Amino acid sequence: MTSDARDIVVLPDPLHRLTRALFERAGWSARDAGLTADHLVLSNASGHDSHGVGMAPRYLRAAANGTIPRGPSLTTVLDAGALLTLDGGMGLGQVVGFDAMNVAIARAQTLGTAIVALRNTHHLGRIGHWGEQVANAGLVAIHFVNVIGRPALVAPWGGTQARFSTNPICIAFPRPGQPPVVLDFATSRIAHGKTRVAWKRGVPVAEGNLLDRDGTPTRDPSVMWIEPFGALLPFGEHKGFGLGMMCELLAGALGGAGTIPGRTGWDVIDNNMLSILIDPARLGGAEAYARETDRLVDWVYDTPAMDGVDRVRIPGEPEREMRVLRGRDGIPIDPTTWGDILEAAAALGLDEAAVRALAALD
Ligand code: NAD
Q1: Is the pLDDT of residue 281 over 60?
Q2: Which residue has a Cα nearest atom 23 of ligand 1?
Q3: CA 240 / ligand 1 centre spacing (Å)
Q4: 212-238: per-residue pLDDT in tens?
C-alpha cells in the first residue's frame, strides 16, 4: 500500500511497544499483549497494513463490549491422534492462533502429521503468520480459513451479491537453511482490510475489484464500509470463487465450526481455520525434500523477467523484502488510522503525548 506525506511513520520496535501497552492496559497479560503486538506489527512490516495495528482499535472495542475474553481460552473438543478439534473460546486470534499452532506442531512432530480444526476464534489476522510459525518448526503448513460472525463480503462468480467472506488460504513450505516459501492470500481479488485502508486514505481501488449495492462495477472503497454494502469480487473468476467456497466447507463445515449463511453484526470477526501440518522428512525423506525444493526454487528464479519486472520472486519474498525496507524506514500509518489508535489509547487512559512517547515520535 502506498504512503503519503500526511502519514505518521513509526519504526517497528516502538510500534510494538505502543501496541503491547494498549493490550496490557486493556487487561491482557504481558505475554498475550506481546504476542498480539508481534502479529500486528509484523503484518505492517510485511506490507499488509490491512492486518496490522490499524485493527487494534477494533479488537479493543470488541473487548470493551465484552466479546473477547482476556484470559486463556483455548480448549480441546476432540483429541484423536493426528486429528484435533480446538475451540478458541472467542479469544484474540493472535494469542489463540499461536497456542493452537504450538499444539499442532507438537502433534505433527510426534505423528508426522496433524489435522487441526480450530473454531470460535476472534480474527486470526495475517494467516501467513501461522504458516511461518509452522514452517519455522520445520513442518509444511496448509491453512484454509472462513469468516463468520459478520455479513458476507464476496460475491460468488457470476453473482451480484456477497455470499462469502474473503476466506484466505495459506501454504507454507520450510526450506532447510533458507527462508520458507509462503503463499498467503484472500480468495477475494483484494483483502477487505485493503478497502478500509483505501477508504481511510480517500483513494479509489483498482478496476475490477468491487461491485456496488446494485451489482455495478465500481472503484469506490466506501461501498464496503457505508451501508447499503456492495461486494468484493473473487480473484481468478470461477477459480477463486471455488477456492473461497472450499474454505467455507473445509474450515466451517468439516470441523463443525459453522458456515456463513445468515450471519449478521460487525464487531465480531469470528474465524475458523483448518490446518494440515506435515513433517516433510517423513514422506519422501529429508534429503529428497530439501534437494527438490531447492531445485524448484532455483528453476523459478531462473525465469527471464518481463519488461518492467526486475526479477521473478517466490511467494513470501515480497513480505521479506518489505520487512527490510520498513525495518529501516519505518511503517507509514495513515492519519485516520492514527486517529483511531489515539482514540483507543485515550479510552485506556493514555493521552497523545504518552502515545507519541511510546512510539518514539518526539
Ligand atoms: P496479496 O494479494 O498481497 O498476496 C500475497 C501473496 O502473494 C503472498 O504469499 C506474497 O508473497 C505473494 N506475492 C505477492 N506478490 C508476489 C510476486 N511478485 N511474486 C511472487 N509472489 C508474490 O494478499 P491479500 O489477498 O491481499 O491478503 C493479505 C492478507 O490478508 C493475507 O495475509 C491474508 O492471510 C489476510 N487475510 C486474512 C483474513 C482473515 O479473516 N483472517 C481474511 C482475508 C485475508
Answers
A1: yes
A2: 185
A3: 13
A4: 999 999 999 999 999 999 999 999 999
What whole-number distance in Å separates Cα of residue 291 and Cα of residue 18?
43
pLDDT 10s digits, 290-345 = 999 999 999 999 999 999 999 999 999 999 999 999 999 999 999 989 999 999 99
Using an 8 Å Cβ cutoff, are 38 and 5 in contact?
Answer: no
Does residue 24 surpass a pLDDT of 70? yes
222: which DSSP letter? Answer: G
| Mean pLDDT for all residues in the chain | 95
Residues 6+ apart with CB under 8 A from 349: 25
Helix, strand, coil fractions of the chain, as percent rounded to 5: 45, 20, 35
CA of 28 to the centre of ligand 1 (A): 29
CA of 190, closest atom in ligand 1: 26
**145 beta partners:** 273
| Concatenated DSSP letters of 30-65 | HHHHHHHHHHHHHHHHTT-GGGSGGGHHHHHHHHHT
Ligand 1 close to Cβ of residue 47 (< 6 A)? no
Distance 228 CA to ligand 1 centre (A): 27
Is 115 near ligand 1, meaning CB less than 6 Å away? no
- pLDDT-derived band at 207, boundaries 50, 70, 90: very high
Locate 163 and state its grid cell.
455470499
Q: How far is the CA of 198 from the centre of ligand 1 (A)?
A: 16
Per residue in 48-92, pLDDT (tens digit) is 998 999 999 999 999 999 889 998 899 999 999 999 999 999 999
Strand partners, 219: none
Can you tell me the distance from the alpha carbon of 296 to that of 303, in angstroms, rounded to the nearest whole number?
11
